[in-house]
Amino acid sequence: MGATSVTGVGPGSAEGSAKGPKERNFVGVEKLIGPRVMLAVQVTLAAGAATYNFPEAMDAAGTEYNVMTQAANAVVVTKVETDGVLSGVTLAGTGTDVVDLMVVKVGA
Q1: Domain for residue 49, yes or no?
Q2: Domain assignment of residue 44, yes or no
Q3: What does each of the 108 residues of the chain score in pLDDT, given as a tens digit?
Q4: 18 occurs within a structural domain
């Protein structure tokens, strides 16, 4: 794609409706519809269990998120909610397994 204006006026310039997000009606990434990964982290179990509190609580209840683990014997036991929003998870497994944990916002 090349510029059609090198002088700053006419077609291809940043005049009128070509300026800024309001005039062009951009939709920010936070408005996209569909699932998106909110958090991906590794958690090490201690004696077969761990509670992982998210750095920041999510913006909706636990039913709005899928929480997945990847480890030989690890599962999500509970989704922890604080003030009605998902704020962490409790995991169970064996020994000191390292668990890959991913939180995905459910798409609409």
Answers
A1: yes
A2: yes
A3: 555 656 666 666 555 554 455 555 555 665 667 788 999 999 999 999 999 999 999 999 999 999 999 988 889 999 999 999 999 999 999 888 899 999 999 876
A4: no
Extract the tokens encoding 56: 């920041």
Residue 25 lies in a domain: no
How far apart are alpha carbons 50 and 82 in whole angstroms? Answer: 17
Report the C-alpha gap between 24 and 22 in whole angstroms: 6
Q: In sequence order, what DSSP letters do the residues of 9-45 get, joined into one string?
A: SSTTSS-GGGSHHHHHT---GGG--S-EEEEEEEEE-
What letter represents residue 55's amino acid? P
Which structure tokens are listed for 32? Answer: 């996209």
Structure tokens at 78: 């509970």
Number of domains in the chain: 1
Range of the domain at 75: 34-105
Residue 68: both structure tokens together:
């997945």
